[in-house]
Amino acid sequence: MKTLQQMLDRILPLSEKEMEAAGRRLDSLTKPPGSLGRLEEIGRQLAGIAGMDVLLGEEPPFERKAVIVMAGDHGVCEEGVSAFPAEVTPQMVRNILNGGAAVNVLARQAGAEVVCVDIGVDAELDDPRLVSRKIRRGTGNIARGPAMTREEAERAVLAGCEVVADLAERGVRLFATGEMGIGNTTPSAALLTVLGGIGLGQSVGRGTGIDDARWLHKQEIIRRAIETNRPDADDPLDVLAKLGGLEIAGLVGVILGAAAHRCPVVIDGFISSAAALVAVKLCPGAAAYLLASHLSGEQGHRLLLETLHLSPLLHAQMRLGEGTGAVLCFPIMEAAVAVMREMATFESAGVSGQ
């Protein structure tokens, strides 16, 4: 197993040469320059990640794609921060494995594989369809102590890297982040507060639909967690270990692993973006491999994306998680590539250019 530092060292900058080549290709197509907007931006980014020879090769480059749904439980649910009980996490994992969750429906539509990973569910789940990478059965209650040890946090990050490596070996070249874990907007808001320097009144949202009283209670629980654990904002792994979640740590590994394999990764909503923030704090170069799928209805998500300097593709008022917004954007990624592969140039079409 590689160390975390070895994984970070594998993440290289995007190729400026390939991005310039993509720009020239896009400008040669039968349209006004820049008229396809974000599709052209995505095309240049994907060229910088994968290379023009891959994008324009014989086979579509992102035919194999997967959403990795990391699942874990949270001890902070003891504090009443969620409208749903913790027992829902293993129940929803089984629903995902059976193909009945929203992420399954949208992934089928996008032609993507759903990979569900037990990295910290507080239950024994025995199913051959489940990828087992369990670090421990749920995190500690962050209002009373650390979520996990530093060593457990690093193991969880590396577990995410390993899942990506296994899928990349099978030919998957486009990834999306998903999660399942009742209570996980609480640690996500805590990460945004500490790593993003955002006040609790802005970072803390209503998660599964809590009322005003519970929303204020949730802010107080996060304030207590920060005071109790005293995380070092300059040490992202310390913050992750003290305030985060196992599925969040796993998604940090998915993002870093995808970047290390020169694969784009589409991040989902608030929880996935909190994982992205940790990943980028660990390795700023990983940001170039990210695409933001949508703007969540969760209050702090806009601030998270602004902190990451990412602009979402969709504004669909979604706030489900699971990776639903991310897989919804897979066809947009493929459309950006199809434009460069299939659209006629001014020269080949006999159309007068500028």
Number of domains: 2
Classified in CATH, the superfamily of the largest domain is Nicotinate-nucleotide-dimethylbenzimidazole phosphoribosyltransferase (CobT), large domain
Number of helices: 17
Q: What best-fitting shape do the alpha-carbon axes yield?
A: globular
As a percent range, the share of helical residues equals 40-55%
Strand order of the largest sheet: 3-2-1-4-5-6
Main beta sheet strand tally, sense and closure: 6 strands, parallel
Describe the oligomeric state of these chains in a short phrase.
single chain
- Low-confidence stretches are none
- Report the span from N to C terminus: 54 Å
| CATH fold node name of the largest domain | Rossmann fold
Helix/strand order: HHHHEHHEEHEHHHHHEHEHHHH
Q: What number is the mean pLDDT? A: 95
Secondary-structure arrangement, i.e. CATH architecture of the largest domain:
3-Layer(aba) Sandwich
The amount of beta strand, in percent, is 5-15%
Rounded to an integer in angstroms, the radius of gyration calculated over CA atoms is: 20 Å
Record field, number of beta strands = 6
User: What structural class do the secondary elements suggest?
Assistant: alpha/beta
CATH class of the largest domain: Alpha Beta
Primary descriptors:
single chain, about 350 residues, alpha/beta, 5,6-Dimethylbenzimidazole Phosphoribosyltransferase, Chain: A, domain 1, Rossmann fold, six-stranded parallel β-sheet, 17 helices, 6 strands, about 50% helix, about 10% strand
